[in-house]
Amino acid sequence: MTAAFPTGLWAGFVPGFFLGLSLIVAIGAQNAFVLRQGLRQEHVFLICLTCAASDALLITAGVTGFAVVSQMMPWAEPLLRYGGAAFLLVYGLRSFMVAFRSDAALAPSQEGVGSLSKALLTCLALTWLNPHVYLDTMVFLGSISAGYGENKAAFGIGAVTASFFFFFSFGYGARLLRPLFAKPTAWRILEVGVGMLMWAIALSLLLE
Questions:
Q1: What one-character DSSP code corresponds to residue 172?
Q2: How many CB atoms lie within 10 A of CB 124?
Q3: Is the Cα torsion angle 172, 157, 121, 126 positive or negative in sign?
Q4: Is the whole model's pTM more than 0.90, yes or no?
């Protein structure tokens, strides 16, 4: 029993952790939102928990065989793709509108804490309406985990651990950048960047 854990650790957990981390660290719509919430220090714990828990559910579904089931529902992919693209276009437009508001509206010290329900709904939409998250967590990680045999569970746990590690480090670490974003100009640049990122992702979804 004692010798089995190191085997599962190195043969499953560690590869799952680093592969999962490599998929998450790429800047996307979800990460941009976490960064923004972290900079504003608004509902950081619940936002990070929502992102990580969502990943955990998707990774678990992929490792337990949902990747095979998803191939039996070809209608789901275009539905998610166009629905996600529409949401990202609207969210990107919102970021552009925020970027061109008054300086006071962009200064975190002058802005009240946003609604928790609105933040969570936005976070869930950015997560679950993104078809790439299903390809990465369910299909890709799910198919890769099949090659780990008896260490498949350890592989999945490693990927889930990477998700929790990244989102909480990213969300709470964003506060280190607060001195930079004390200037309204920095917030304006961030919002424009987020808007461009959202529209770029939406365009990539529509062109696939």
A1: H
A2: 13
A3: positive
A4: no
